Task: inverse folding
């Protein structure tokens, strides 16, 4: 019996070791870059890491997705080099970093548009204003706004069914702040999920439903969904690469950031990766379905990295809602 | 209608009821398997198993996730089985049957029911931070070991308990020591049932995601782990990540990865069942 036990365990160990020796044949410069944070930014970091590997195969870049808040927690404990964030760092998180003696460099890397969509079968909604969205989603709407004719009198008297982000997601934070004016202010009687694919499934089969989620999820499911243009004061605008990029789709486009530990940046592998990130984020963001900044803006971002400008431009929790990319970068570059 | 007839109807009714109960489980499993296999089977090829993770669904593979899982599960086995079997044997063969023993017994049973995420939090603080193992394979394996220990202990106890006392008495009567009796008589006789417990433990460890996420398993790991202190990812986490991506290609990938995971569990269980059957045939008492 003992023999069988030994055989089993050694066999298992051997197989795992055998596989393990496959990687890392060359002994060129090596190193590890650790990234964690927002699951929205995750695909960008993954793509950058994947392509970076082709130019620097011996630098191992790992990416996790603990969420923006979870990422900052690890960042302030010195556990990671780069934190992915779908919102700016908060003052509490800055305090935690200061206490641990961590300085950070804040770099915007792309924009994400939030799409408001209904089912293909829905014929009556042609556009919505921000005020109407607020009436639909604000906390006071819970239990009182139940049929579409309450939103606009020309809409039919059909029951409203809503699908939206779960409370733990950065999308929820952003949408509630942009539409209802306060982070986390939302009605609670809607179908919530952190998984946007669940929302896509839900709303596509629901004639009187409405949902919001990342633009990439609309683009991948165009055959099932109808995109609603949003009127932020200057007429209805559809979200697209162009309108999110030039800031006309407001207020539902949000910037995404990476935060780099400036002490980590002294390591060669981190510096090389960060440089590669700012040079390639635009191309890769587009690949994934996000909206890149424009070329000049990436220049400013690269400048900021080269000069190692530390600190955030969003002091005192200043909101990113309604901020155009150009404005954002003017602040970023200190002009 | 006489009594015999009534009883016969009751008898048949229960039989049908039991049959329905069985088919509910099988039906759900069948639907699930059909759904996954119809979506994912065509995606499985050698490249899928040997490729690194990628942003392109067609190029993405599960190499590092699969290796990470093998590492984690193997280490978990190596850590938890000796401890679990040792504890089980002690409680059954050496431990006094008093109030304290009862207390321990109840606690072990309770531990088996603690939500796995709680083990994750414990593992993060104890192994990840206090022992500064970080989000390494070792930290994850130690955490999963805690998780499966109660199962291993309970299974070992039951197995040892089922060995007839006459065997022990005969052994001791022939002048064997306690240890000789345990190692040559009791453990070999109960080996089959212990293995059943181990099957359950391994199957649970393979599918666990929540505690690993808490301990800090990553999603994108482009290298195969080389030592227990390396960072890692595992298949369930890769699947979880793929199902939440917008591109439909990733959903196909997820289905394919689920098939591989099922296969992995199936093979593990198969090995254990095979060993148990072979062993049970040899042991006669």
Result:
């Amino acid at each position: 019996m003992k023999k069988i036990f030994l055989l089993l365990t050694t066999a298992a160990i051997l197989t795992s070791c055998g596989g393990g020796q496959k990687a890392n044949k060359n002994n060129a410069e090596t190193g590890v870059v650790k990234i964690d944070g927002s699951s929205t930014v995750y695909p960008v970091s993954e793509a950058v890491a994947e392509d970076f590997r082709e130019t620097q195969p011996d630098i191992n870049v790992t990416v996790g997705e603990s969420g923006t808040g979870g990422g900052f927690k690890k960042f302030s404990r010195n556990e990671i080099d780069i934190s992915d964030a779908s919102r700016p760092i908060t003052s509490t998180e800055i305090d935690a970093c200061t206490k641990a003696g961590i300085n950070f460099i804040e770099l915007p890397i792309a924009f994400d548009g939030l799409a408001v969509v209904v089912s293909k079968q829905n014929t009556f909604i042609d556009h919505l204003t921000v005020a109407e969205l607020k009436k639909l989603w604000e906390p006071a709407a819970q239990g009182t706004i139940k049929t579409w004719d309450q939103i606009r009198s020309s809409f039919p008297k059909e029951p409203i069914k809503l699908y939206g982000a779960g409370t733990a997601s950065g999308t929820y934070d952003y949408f509630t702040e942009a539409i209802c004016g306060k982070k986390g202010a939302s009605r609670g009687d809607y179908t919530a999920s952190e998984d946007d694919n669940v929302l896509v499934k839900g709303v596509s089969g629901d004639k009187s439903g409405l949902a919001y989620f990342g633009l990439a999820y609309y683009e991948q499911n165009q055959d099932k969904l109808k995109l609603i243009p949003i009127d932020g004061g200057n007429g209805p605008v559809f979200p697209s690469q162009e309108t999110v990029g030039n800031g006309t789709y407001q207020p539902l486009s949000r910037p995404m950031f990476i935060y780099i530990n400036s002490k980590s940046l002294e390591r060669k592998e981190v510096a090389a990766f960060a440089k590669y990130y700012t040079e390639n984020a635009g191309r890769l963001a587009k690949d994934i379905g996000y909206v890149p900044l424009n070329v000049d803006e990436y220049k400013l971002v690269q400048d900021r990295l080269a000069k190692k400008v530390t600190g955030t431009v969003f002091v005192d929790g200043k909101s990113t809602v309604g901020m155009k990319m150009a404005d954002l970068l003017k602040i970023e570059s200190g002009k | 209608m006489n009594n015999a007839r009534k009883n016969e109807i009751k008898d048949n009714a229960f039989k049908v009821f039991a049959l329905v109960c069985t088919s509910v489980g099988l039906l759900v499993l069948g639907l699930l398997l059909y759904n996954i296999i119809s979506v994912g089977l065509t995606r499985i090829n050698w490249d899928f198993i040997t490729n690194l993770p990628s942003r392109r669904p067609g190029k993405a593979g599960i190499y590092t996730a699969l290796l990470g899982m093998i590492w984690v599960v193997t280490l978990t086995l190596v850590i938890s089985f000796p401890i679990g079997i040792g504890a089980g044997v002690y409680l059954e063969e050496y431990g006094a049957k008093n109030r304290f023993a009862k207390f321990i017994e109840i606690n072990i049973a309770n531990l088996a029911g603690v939500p796995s995420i709680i083990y994750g939090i414990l593992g993060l603080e104890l192994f990840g931070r206090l022992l500064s193992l970080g989000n390494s394979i070792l930290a994850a394996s130690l955490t999963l070991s805690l998780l499966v220990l109660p199962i291993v202990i309970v299974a070992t106890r039951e197995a040892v308990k089922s060995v007839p006392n006459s065997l022990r008495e005969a052994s001791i009567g022939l002048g064997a020591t306690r240890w000789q009796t345990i190692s040559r008589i009791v453990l070999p006789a109960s080996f089959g049932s212990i293995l059943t417990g181990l099957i359950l433990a391994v199957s649970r460890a393979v599918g666990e995601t929540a505690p690993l996420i808490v301990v800090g398993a990553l999603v994108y790991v482009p290298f195969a782990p080389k030592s227990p202190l390396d960072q890692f990812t595992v298949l369930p986490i890769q699947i979880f990540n793929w199902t939440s991506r917008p591109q439909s290609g990733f959903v196909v990938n997820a289905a394919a990865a689920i098939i591989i995971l099922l296969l992995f569990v199936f093979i593990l269980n198969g090995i254990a069942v095979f060993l148990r059957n072979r062993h049970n045939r040899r042991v006669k008492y």
